[in-house]
Design brief:
The chain has 2 domains: 7-154 and 295-345, Quinone Oxidoreductase, Chain A, domain 1, CATH 3.90.180; 164-291, NAD(P)-binding Rossmann-like Domain (Rossmann fold). It has helices at residues 51-55, 97-100, 128-133, 144-147, 150-162, 178-190, 203-209, 224-231, 247-256, 279-284, 297-308, 326-335; strands spanning 7-16, 19-27, 35-43, 60-61, 65-73, 84-87, 115-116, 123-126, 135-137, 170-174, 195-200, 215-218, 237-242, 257-265, 288-291, 317-322, 341-345. The chain has 12 helices and 17 strands. The strands form 3 sheets. Strands 3, 5, 6, 7, 8, 9, 16 and 17 form an 8-stranded mixed sheet that branches. It has a 6-stranded parallel sheet with strand order 12-11-10-13-14-15, with helices on both faces. It is an alpha/beta fold. Strand 13 (237-242), helix 9 (247-256) and strand 14 (257-265) form a beta-alpha-beta unit.
Length: 346
């Protein structure tokens, strides 16, 4: 069904830390291969409260964990009005050398935003590159709440894959917020670890982690390395996945690694942070450091498959808010307390 022109969407735009504004954004008619989406739900990403990261893009519309319904389809688009879809906010070309290697996030076409203005809006244009490369029908058995997890869950799928887990590995996840808990779920669903540990300092998050982890460690009560050594008979763990983007977390993680282990860096530190890494220890103990950034089309499809298989992601939704309360939602995410997943509905 065609919509009237000019068409104006209401969007949340970041201008500075603490300065989120509701703005009217004029949207053109969808061009060839494009979609006009009516956003039905959007999750709030913890990365959007990393001020140093978002501020350098300002002013920038927020939201990329979105699900929507096609309101209008451009000529040649693969979807039709009424279809429920997920569209990734980035899209690779699928033909370059980086894409051929599976390194989709390093494709030259990947970084530009492909969801205009963003997912935290009443409506958005999904550009043709994203529709062609990384869009999917959302089946009716997947709720809007669950569908907002496709993008973050895809990032976790990639993270676990890059951790190169082997059967029987002992794994430690540092940080039991929503992304840490998703890691615990995926480890149980896709890997065969002999031990899963989770560490945090927030009681509510430790309680949530206990549903999926064999051992939970409260880092306010004892050094994490002591808990890791106790849980592994003194060896240390084989894989550590670092959620917080801090030097403290990186150092704690590498100290917990057994020789031959892998440290997965899931969140960046700020550009000015420096980690005084002991390269001698790294070398002789053959420890591997692996960063993992965002996700590609293969990961989003695996994420949808996990949702269809019943991964209980909606149990992590603690708050549902209207678009007008998005700022309050980000306050909850920033506080990193009992709130886990915050879902906003326009």
């Amino acid at each position: 069904m065609a919509v009237g022109r000019p068409f104006v969407a209401r969007a949340v735009v970041f201008h500075a830390p603490g300065d989120l504004r509701f703005e009217d954004v004029a949207l053109p008619a969808p061009g060839p291969g494009e979609l006009l989406l009516r956003i039905t739900a959007c999750g709030l990403c913890p990365g959007e409260v990393m001020d140093w990261y978002i501020a350098r893009k300002a002013p920038v519309p927020l939201g990329h964990e979105a699900v929507g319904e096609v309101a209008e389809a451009g000529p040649g688009a693969a979807y039709r009005p009424g279809d429920r879809v997920f569209v990734h906010h980035h899209a690779p070309c699928l033909t370059c050398r980086a894409c051929g290697r599976g390194d989709f996030v390093h494709c030259a076409t990947w970084r530009p935003r492909r969801l205009i203005p963003g997912g935290l809006a009443t409506h958005a244009i999904a550009q043709a590159q994203a529709v062609a490369a990384d869009a999917m029908h959302v089946p009716p058995e997947i709720s809007d709440d669950a569908a907002t997890f496709i993008e973050p869950l895809a990032c976790v799928v990639k993270s676990v894959r890059r951790g190169r887990l082997r059967g029987g590995d002992r794994v430690l996840v540092i940080g039991a917020g929503v992304m840490g808990l998703l890691h615990l779920m995926v480890l149980r669903a896709r890997a065969e670890p002999s031990l899963v540990m989770a560490a945090d300092r927030v009681p509510a998050r430790l309680e949530a982690a206990a549903r999926f982890a064999d051992v939970v460690a409260d880092v306010t009560q004892r050094p994490l390395i002591d808990a890791a050594k106790d849980a592994t008979g003194g060896d240390g763990v084989d894989v550590v996945i670092i959620g917080p983007g801090t030097i403290e977390a990186l150092q704690a993680g590498i100290e917990c690694l057994a020789p031959g282990g892998t440290l997965v860096v899931f969140t960046p530190t700020s550009p000015d942070d420096r980690w005084p890494l002991n390269v001698c220890d790294l070398f002789f103990n053959e420890k591997t450091i692996v960063p993992t950034y965002s996700a590609g089309p293969d990961d989003t499809r695996e994420a949808l498959g996990l949702l269809q298989a019943g991964l209980p992601v909606t149990s992590l939704v603690t708050h549902r808010l209207p678009l007008e309360q998005a700022a309050a939602g980000y306050d909850l995410v920033r506080a990193a307390g009992s709130a886990l997943k915050v879902v906003v509905t326009p």
